[in-house]
Amino acid sequence: MDTAQLRDAYRTLLDAAVTVAESPVPVEPPPGEWDADQILAHVSLVTATTLAAVSAITAGANTTYDNRVALDTWTIDRVIRLAGGGAGLRERVHVQADALCALAGATLSKTELDTRVPTLLLSHDTALVDQLVPLGDLISGLAEGELPGHTRQLLALLPAGTRDETAR
User: Fold this and answer.
1) Domain 4-167 in CATH: superfamily?
2) Inter-axis angle of helices 36-58 and 147-155, nearest 10
């Protein structure tokens, strides 16, 4: 599997996270939305779930893909504490991204990428996906949707004047 797009999506997300962290006046998220640490903890949990699914498939085991734990506020807060905050979260996501790209790029066969995984994906208490999804589509979905969406979410935490410059 070519993981270039996935690597780029993680790199862009982490660059945005650094920009937000270095911003002298970050914008508070609207009520009900996540701050930068919560976004990164969520991404860490999603990446861990993806790594677990890839590892299971490469081991010849059955697996499922369920993002509910990555939406749980208690778990998100715990990951923030365990990682030691923003810098630790950025490093954790960076290492997880490297691991996922290495594992997915070097070892997955076409048969493994085509393995259909029972998948449940929620967003704002709504089921977006509740069906079998090929493992390769789960991985490419990170690069094409999940990570760019969270990058935009991070950049929205910047003051309006810097938001436009950073997006370029």
Assistant:
1) dinb family like domain (1.20.120.450)
2) 170
